[in-house]
Specification:
- The chain is α/β, with parallel strands linked by helices.
- The protein has three domains: 169 residues, 3-Layer(aba) Sandwich (Cytidine Deaminase, domain 2); 148 residues, AICAR transformylase, duplication domain (Cytidine Deaminase, domain 2, 3-Layer(aba) Sandwich), CATH 3.40.140.20; 48 residues, no CATH class.
- It contains twelve helices and 15 strands.
- The strands form four sheets. Strands 3-8-7-6-4-5 form a six-stranded mixed beta sheet.
- Helix 12 links the parallel strand 14 and strand 15.
- The two termini are 28 Å apart.
- The model has no long low-confidence stretch (mean pLDDT 96).
């Protein structure tokens, strides 16, 4: 197919809309189910590039959960421990490697991933399809599907669930263009590949990075390459724990992602894991209530006449003191930034959320101030020497 007519563009009034190749060649994908829209395809194209690059870099099955052209979560396939299985609501499931990668990606921020577009680096198998079947999602892109997986996915949304098969051998040209307000912008595509050399230039006194942290730093860079700028990304154990995207200020990115990282970690607190939900409470309701519980916004839920709708008995709140004590034990988090840190306040905030490893481009007039801040916390920081802005 050389052209695909879309229902509309970004908004219903933006018609006509279509996809096509300027060189009049075949489109590098097939739609196997549903009718993906303009935003769906933007998420699919960006998400596919991300997981493809992450798969090539790490050698591990990779997944991304995209919303509005930025990832809510990204992960490679690292086996789940018992606590993670409970946090991600898969405690009784036997999962394939590609299914594990998506469970982790979705588990980064389940509220933000509500209605996500899924990207998988490997063929979608039955195990992954069964996980996806129960989630509220707007579509999926992968290099292929097993017969059983496709049957399962075609059953979502009464047969209208968008399923896209991407040609894994497709490579774009070296130049990309876009038109804004009638003006054509042209540039070379961002074809610089993330590699281990980007974390070789360590500028701090502490220069010890274990293999797990190296992988996490690389995951952060690949994630940032396809995240709307300004952006920072916190990663731990092969998955993003938070993404701060599209902020005008670097410190606002770091704060936003830091707050989200805290929420992510607090979901593993024993009090959170043992919330006494009533039988029959929907997964989305559990996600929303858990988010309120760990973020300290639970007082309205604890009112008489409210908590009885959701819980077997009235749960104790996760107080600020309990939250602080638990978070003080979180360490070993890696942080990537798509642009340099202009002030040390980013380092101070990152440390509070367990960050011990950082990669950023470098190049600020205050680099030494930022390096000294890392030295105070015994952090390791590498200068990648490459900026990863994405718009």
């Amino acid at each position: 197919m050389k052209e695909r007519i879309l229902k509309y563009g970004l908004n219903p009034n933006q018609i006509p809309a279509r996809l096509y190749m300027e060189d009049k060649s075949e489109l590098p994908f097939k739609v196997l189910s549903g009718n993906p829209g303009y935003i769906n395809f933007l998420d699919a194209v960006n998400g596919w590039q991300l997981v493809r690059e992450l798969r090539r870099l790490t050698g591990l099955p990779s997944a991304a959960s995209f919303k509005h052209v930025s990832p809510s979560g990204v992960a490679v396939s690292v086996p789940l421990n018992d606590t993670e299985k409970k946090v991600f609501s898969v405690d009784n499931n036997e999962l394939s490697p590609i299914a594990v990668s998506y469970v982790r990606a979705r588990g980064t921020d389940r509220m933000s991933s509500f209605g996500d577009f899924i990207s998988l680096s490997d063929i979608c198998d039955e195990s992954a399809a069964l996980v996806i079947k129960r989630e509220v999602s707007d579509g999926i892109v992968a290099p292929g599907y097993t017969e059983k997986a496709l049957e399962i996915l075609k059953g979502k949304k009464k047969g209208n669930y968008p399923v896209i098969e991407m040609d894994p051998d497709y490579e774009p040209g070296r130049t990309e263009t876009r038109r804004v307000f009638g003006i054509t912008f042209e540039q070379r595509i961002n074809d610089i590949a993330v590699d281990e050399k980007m974390i070789d230039r360590i500028v701090t006194e502490n220069k010890v990075i274990d293999d797990g942290a190296k992988t996490d730093l690389l995951i952060s860079l690949v994630t940032l390459k396809y995240t709307q700028s300004n952006s920072v990304c916190y990663v731990r154990n092969g998955q993003t724990v938070s993404v701060g995207a599209g902020q005008q200020s670097r410190i606002h990115c770091t704060r936003l992602a830091g707050d989200k990282a805290d929420i992510f970690h607090l979901k593993s607190h024993p009090m959170t894991l043992n919330l006494p939900f009533l039988n029959g409470i929907r997964r989305t309701e559990k996600d929303n209530l858990t988010d309120l519980f760990v973020s300290g916004n639970f007082s309205d839920v604890l009112k008489d006449g409210v908590w009885e709708r959701y819980f077997e008995y009235k749960p104790d709140p996760l107080t600020e003191d309990i939250r602080k004590e638990f978070l003080s034990g979180i360490r070993g988090v890696s942080l990537g930034s798509d642009g340099f840190f202009p002030f040390r306040d980013n380092i101070d905030r990152a440390y509070r959320s367990g960050v011990d490893y950082i990669v950023q481009p470098g190049g600020s007039v205050r680099d030494m101030e930022v390096i000294e801040a890392c030295n105070e916390y015994s952090m390791v920081m590498a200068f990648a020497g490459t900026r990863f802005f994405h718009h």
